[in-house]
Amino acid sequence: MRQFGCNLNRFAKDHLWEVRGLAQLEILCKQLYETTDTAVRHQAEKALVEFTNSADCLSKCQLLLERGSLLAATCLSKLVSRTSNPLPLEQRIDIRNYVLNYLATRAKLAAFVTQALIQLYARITKLGWFDCQKDDYVFRNVIADVTRFLQADTSHPLTKHRKIASSFRDSSLFDIFTLSCNLLKQASGKNLNLNDESQHGLLMQLLKLSYNCLNYDFIGTSTDESSDDLCTVQIPTSWRSAFLDSSTLQLFFNLYHSIPPSLSPLVLSCLVQIASVRRSLFNNAERAKFLSHLVDGVKRILANPQCLPDPNNYHEFCRLLARLKSNYQLGELVKVENYPEVIRLIANFTVTSLQHWEFAPNSVHYLLSLWQRLAASVPYVKATEPHLLETYTPEVTKAYITSRLESVHVILRDGLEDPLDDAGLVQQQLDQLSTIGRCEYEKTCALLVQLFDQAAQSYQELLQSTNSSPAEATVQEGRLTWLVYIIGAVIGGRVSFASTDEQDAMDGELVCRVLQLMNLTDSRLAQAGNERLELAMLSFFEQFRKIYIGDQVQKSSKLYRRLSDVLGLNDETMVLSVFIGKIITNLKYWGQCEPITSKTLQLLNDLSLGYPSLCCTYSSVRKLVKLTAVQFMLNNHTSEHFSFLGVNNQSNLSDMRCRTTFYTALGRLLMVDLGEDEDQFEQFMLPLTAAFETVAQMLSTNTFNEQEAKRTLVGLVRDLRGIAFAFNAKTSFMMLFDWMYPHTPCYTCCPPPGELLCSTRYPAYMPILQRAIELWYHDPACTTPVLKLMAELVHNRSQRLQFDVSSPNGILLFRETSKMITTYGNRILTLGEVPKDQVYGVKLKGVSVCFAMLKAVLSGNYVNFGVFRLYGDDALDNALQTFIKLLLSIPHSDLLDYPKLSQSFYSLLEVLTQDHMGFFASLEPHVAILDHIVTYLFKQLTRSTKKRPASMATDDRFLHIMRQHPEMIQQMLSTVLNIIIFEDCRNQWSMSRPLLGLILLNEKYFADLRNSIVNSQPPEKQQAMHLCFENLMEGIERNLLTKNRDRFTQNLSVFRREVNDSMKNSTYGVNSNDMMS
């Protein structure tokens, strides 16, 4: 503590700062953490950020720490983590020792301060794991330091973090886990008074320690908590002894039964991790023995369920049950000695849990997951022992169905939250039930038919009765809603290879009942309707479509026979007419209900998808197009017939998103028989032509209704985007293009200066979109749809944008694109500072679309960009300069924080570096981009001795910058080499391409880097490492021809393998940071 203590004494003498400065900082902290005034909190946060960045922050933190300040711990964590101007080793050692002593001598610190200081100690230890002082790894004595303490009472590279974590795992983690288990055994053998807060807290921390050891990221792939039931714990092989010894597993089961419910959830969490240990840790016999002990422990808990009423215990136990099947095979489970008794207890537990649906509803997922996996395994189990699922699975299915139906009345009576309102949860459970219900499907179908008939009959009687209460009808509608959802789910669970004619006939029984109910509810829509029931119907139709609509379905299926007998639906065409009839009915009566409208249009979109080639006469989509109802939609897509297409002043602009889906489906249907029939296309476009003319008239005056104009325009561009997306073929897309550009440019007069073509008769519609951008650039609800339409129009999907050699349309299209990007970009930059919580919606989303638009047009291969410079047209320069302006206005953190923006930026950057390198000097590259940059630089440098025209001045400036700052290329070389040697380089081919160019550009630096790496090795390994580098460049010529690159890639593969082998047993190693310096 020498330096740290001296600093403390020196600054303690500064009484004025201690009195005023500390008091002021504490006031700011209080304002930051306690005030409810946003403005005050913002000002306090700003002032504290300035404090943490000040030069004397460290010394002031020491004074703050004496007063038990959380701010001090936070600031110190930031200081020890920084990579630029890092703290000296001596100072970090002093801080670490001071923190440990501080914790030991101040037992009554606030809990959050103690936690922050512990995190500070852990951060210092982790970041200094490889730091040496006199050949001693001074930060690795963690256990010894903490033991002495108990007896007394991220900005680093990912590579280094992984190395630290791996070294800690190999050297210390198992010892820590063993220590925690030993201490737990000692605690369980003593008569602890767990009512005492200190003893209770000690046992809790021991359990947390054990859990954290088991939950360690052993192989550097942090698990996704959303896929918890798929997790496997990658325990190292060196831990085998702990799990082959049954006493470890028995310890936690014994603890569960002996400690109070407040601590037992932690025990169950540990058991969940132990149950998830990777299968390959054991051989077959060892795994069977381990599984037997695990199942015995589960049976013991089920037989003594006193602690399970606690919600936390219940949840963790459900997770434990799910792991039984996610990590073990059904064939292994049935061989466990007491399997019949255990599966009976699990089934009873599941049925009871489902019946008490209001208790811990989030835990049901794990139980259904268990039974779903068990049911799915039945066809594949080869063991001779009975699995008994044919007995217990129907009980689980029945419990789920009946409990959902019984919940409807209770929810309405008590005003509880309805599970049907959580669409994600319902869909997740239905996906699981679809597999469970198909096991012993006869029983499932019989139950559903019985319950559906009862509910439908009661509902019909209530509708016919004059004195029935609305509440009774609502209950029956809720029950029918659940049944329709469940019927759709079990039909969707049909597996073609495992299905029988009898099961198809059962599906037919269920489908007939749902369609009869639909006829009843549709007949009443003029008076009343039930939104939840309609959404269930749409879910049913979607499942029915996936299974029984399409050319792959046998039309001789017993389902179609049943539909014919009961409803007169003799073939697929008649069934499709039912689908379209339902879609039109929903759009007519539910046009103002966004959830129903969007799901209805999604169903229409799915029906229009994936039609086969035009030579396939029997395609389902061809049958669809021939329906009278579909022809009606193609000829009457106006607000008069479909209310959601109207301009409603009460709705939000974002509510019009469904229009794109509608017109995408109509566009696909139109294309089926469109061919080259321009008259049919013009007829289809009449409503959109009228809308364009309406907007044009509004914008031509100064007194138009702005909101009406916005709504009309947004609806129009969303419609057009849907059509443009659907028109993938050249013929149909050219019709749309000609509609957008109804006149051809004039070739008879001279073009104005700086333009390739005269535009006196230029398009009628594009200026309207440009004008909208100029007027409403600050309103993303208006500009984003316009920008997305333009991005779709310039996207050469399926080579649909192919112009004749005499056509200027490609150039004209790019000029309009450039104009829109420039107009939007220059205006959006005038907005100034945008609040952080609004910056994506207001600015970055539009910028991202502009990047995607520019990338699409630059890579579309329908514009020769060389003519722009040749003829002095500034369209290309304007677009690229606007891109640079927009890029410079975006903080680098935002590029990383918003994935869509990042993706559009790097995709555009790759295109630009390939063909437009003159516009770049330094941007953070991806591998492919780096390859383009390096290749460009090498080619220019090799030509630098030749006479170059004045037009290449831009390239000269670029090379000049690189010569002035060679460290940029050197940094890239060391980074790529570091990745190849130290990281898990999965795409070695891609990494090798830029590396050769970097070496040829930096031959002297590469030689120095090679010598540094060789000298860092132990003396006996230096010759082998030197040979590795010699072999890397063997046969490599000084060029970037493909043949030379391929040879280098082969050499690099051998080099990486030999270097890794050489370094495996080295105690010296190579510090990746040394290479980066």
UniProtKB/TrEMBL annotation:
GO terms for cellular component: cytoplasm; nuclear pore. It is found in: Cytoplasm; Nucleus. One of its GO terms (molecular function) is nuclear export signal receptor activity. InterPro entries: ARM-like, ARM-type_fold, Importin-beta_N, TPR_XPO7/RBP17, XPO4/7-like. It comes from the Eukaryota. The keyword Coiled coil does not apply. Residues 408-651 form the Exportin-7/Ran-binding protein 17 TPR repeats domain. GO terms for biological process: protein export from nucleus. Residues 44-104 form the Importin N-terminal domain. Pfam families: IBN_N (PF03810), TPR_XPO7 (PF25795). The keyword Nucleus applies. Keywords: Cytoplasm, Nucleus, Protein transport, Transport. Belongs to the exportin family. PANTHER family: EXPORTIN 4,7-RELATED, EXPORTIN-7 ISOFORM X1. This is Exportin 7. It comes from Muraenolepis orangiensis.
